[in-house]
Amino acid sequence: MDTSFGKKEKLKSQKTIGQLFTEGKSLTIFPLKLIYLRTEQQEVCIKAAVTVPKKNFKRAVHRNKIKRLLRESYRLNKGLAFNNTQGNFAFLFLYLGKDMPAFEDVASKMKLLLEKFNARIHEKTNA
User: Fold this and answer.
1) Which parts of the chain span the membrane according to its record (predicted)?
2) CATH at residue 14
């Protein structure tokens, strides 16, 4: 399994991000929230983006640090989602907490969130 998080895997389309907020389904394991949406054919099966609200973290350095933590924890755990899904998805990870997290906390919650996503997807396909 490739554990990089390259340019092709990053979600940059404003149109798709807008669709995520309007039509996307969400899962939450505090302090992380995953908004996902099945998308049209892409070059990779999952495109992901991360965001941290300015309301909770006024300073850009703090928001950027949390985004780096989110991207790294996704990169290390993305095999859980890539290996167990059929179809194409767009992911948006939101950080909901109000305190600066430790990497271990973010990584463990990311793993739980991706497992919950897999369970929900398999539940839908088997129903």
Assistant:
1) none
2) 3.30.230.10
pTM (2 d.p.): 0.90
Residue by residue, what is the 3-state secondary structure of the chain? Answer: CCCCCCHHHECCCHHHHHHHHHHCEEEEECCEEEEEEECCCCCCCEEEEEECCCCCCCCHHHHHHHHHHHHHHHHHHCHHHHCCCCCCEEEEEEECCCCCCCHHHHHHHHHHHHHHHHHHHHHHHHC
pLDDT tens-place string over residues 12-40: 999 999 999 999 999 999 999 999 999 88
Q: How many domains does the chain have?
A: 1
